[in-house]
Amino acid sequence: MGSLSEMPVADTSTRPAPPARDDQTFSVVSARDLSLTFDTNDGPVHALSHVDLDVKRGDFVSFIGPSGCGKTTFLRVIADLEQATSGQISVNGMTPEEARKARSYGYVFQAPALYPWRTIEKNIALPLEIMNYTASERQARIKRTLDLVNLADFGKKYPWQLSGGMQQRASIARALAFDADLLLMDEPFGALDEIVRDHLNEQLLKLWQETQKTICFVTHSIPEAVYLSTRIVVMSPRPGRVTDVIESTLPKERPLDIRETPEFLEIAHRVREGLRAGHSYDE
Amino acid sequence: MTNSAADRIRDHIIPVATIVVAIIAIWYVGAIAMNAPFQRDLDRRGNTTSTTMEFVAKTLSQPKPILPAPHQVAQNLFDNTVMRSVTSNRSLVYHSWVTLSSTLAGFAFGTVLGILIAIGIVHVTALERSLMPWIIASQMVPVLAIAPMVIVVLSAVNITGLLPKALISTYLSFFPVAVGMVKGLRSPELIQLDLMRTYNAGTLATLLKLRLPASVPFLFASMKVAVAASLVGAIVGELPTGAVAGLGSKLLAGSYYSQTIDIWAALVAGSVLAALLVAAVGIASKLVARAMGAQTGGRAA
């Protein structure tokens, strides 16, 4: 982080030089004074306003906030699906566009977005085909990722033959199939019921520990954010901004019933306070 | 299975059969009414008097009736299909085949052309603005006006036979395919396109792996319209050429010699052909949908 502190405060035009990639303190995502304004017919909408944020290698960072707070927009800026209006952002030490072209992240959308004419296997093969993996390599990766999301027996099924939770797991497998060490997840379990969601949260934590990926996770569920994350970014709307960043004190090993512990409830309380603070002027 | 067979009879066969019976009944009444004045004239000149039944029978068995009775058309169809060698130039099977071959050629050209135009329009904004008005204008011109000119111009450069007729079919069939495919190629949802973008997929990969598969249902829907239009195009293409073969030439010859029964038989042959073509596209559509994993039964999970 030395390069950052050496930077002149007024100069925001240069990006910090990326440190070594295997460094645990390496910022996979680094945003400085990032703003994004949408021009709409009702005037400009400040989706993101002066966001400063670092996501470290191996972090599980949740973005939580009410709708309109820019959490999804921030994820889309990282993914180069939206472009920031001002400020800097680097992804793996590159611009988002370079990072996208280097295929350095996997993106999981709110909906599974599986192609209905492809079997689950073929859906997972889709990015591999586009990235020109060999057929044998594709087979190996399909098998590995299906095992990882517990869908080993469903490779030959079509998406409509699977439940919503299974479809979303398949879409996670698709995002894991190629070698991106950053996983961007935009409310992946938002449309699922509580029980399925608990189950998938547990699986996702296991998966994160096994794969050592860096995960950015958008949600509007406080328990989900607290249960999953090493850091929780609380955001508030109009303009979309970061109001609090909470470091989780929970251990890495997290059984589901950790959600009953005082420590968990304490963090959840702080998140709720942060959300309320961001909201108060609005009510 | 017996239950579904019974359902099938109730849901499909009975309604269709009812309409067919009604049409035939109206047709008979119409035939009697329309042929009666001529028959009356004939009877008066021949000084014959006949009972009502005899009179009705005669209106339904004229050699050149204004409106032939269904059984006369059926008899003609039977004589000119089953009873004749298919190579005979009086066989409707032969004439249907001549028309069918140019229909299929034109339909194939038209489908390919329509798909190519749609791909161009979806990828190049300038093409949409420049091409679309012309494409729509092309369909405003009556095919009866265009067809003779195409035939005459092409025969002037010694292109005759199947190709000019196929081109008229192409002219009619590319339009529904182009319009349907533009919609189909644009049917993928934003999220599916975003997904391709996160993979840094190029235009070609997005076309092949997303846009084309997503447009398949749209393609088949427009191909059903296109194949019927192709048949019309081929028949119209046979009218002005003095073509010696094909359903169009059969219609034209029939009208020259007032062979109304022949005309109606050719019309029926044409509509049977159209129904078969549309049904064939429908079956192809179902087979492709099944191969592409369309939902067929209950949910497995």
What can you tell me about this protein's structure?
The complex is a heterodimer of chains A (283) and B (301). Chain A is an alpha/beta fold and 283 residues long. Chain A has two domains: 27-96 and 182-278, P-loop containing nucleotide triphosphate hydrolases (Rossmann fold), CATH 3.40.50; 114-180, no CATH class. Helices cover 35% and strands 24% of the residues of chain A. Chain A has nine helices and nine strands. In chain A, a hairpin with a 2-residue loop joins strand 1 and strand 2. In chain A, helix 4 runs parallel beside helix 6 (164-176) and helix 5 (135-148) crosses helix 6 (164-176). Chain B folds into two domains: 2-66; 92-291, Orthogonal Bundle (MetI-like fold). The longest helix of chain B is centred in the N-terminal third of the chain and has 44 residues, at 2-45. The model of chain B has no long low-confidence stretch (mean pLDDT 89). Chain B has 301 residues and is mostly helical. The chains are: A alpha/beta (283), B mainly alpha (301). Chains A and B meet through strand 5 and helix 4 of A and helix 8 and helix 9 of B.
If strands are numbered along the chain, what order do they take across the biggest sheet of chain A? 5-6-7-3-8-9
Strand % of chain B is under 5%
**Main beta sheet strand tally, sense and closure of chain B:** none
What would you report as the Rg of chain B, rounded to the nearest angstrom? 25 Å
What percentage of the residues of chain A does DSSP assign to strands (E)?
A: 15-25%
CATH topology tier name of the largest domain in chain A? Rossmann fold
- Count of DSSP H/I helices of chain A: 9
Largest sheet of chain A: 6 strands, mixed
Determine the N-to-C terminus distance of chain B. 25 Å
Q: What's the CATH topology name of the largest domain in chain B? A: MetI-like fold
Name the chain pair whose interface involves the most residues: A-B, 30 and 23 residues
What's the pLDDT, averaged over the residues of chain A? 87
Shape of chain B: elongated
Quickly give the CATH architecture of the largest domain in chain A.
3-Layer(aba) Sandwich
Share in helix of chain A: 25-40%
Mean pLDDT of chain B: 89
H/E element order of chain A: HEEEHEHEHHHEHEHEEH
Low confidence ranges of chain A: 1-19
Q: What sort of overall outline of chain A do the alpha carbons produce when their principal axes are compared? A: globular
- Count of individual domains of chain A: 2
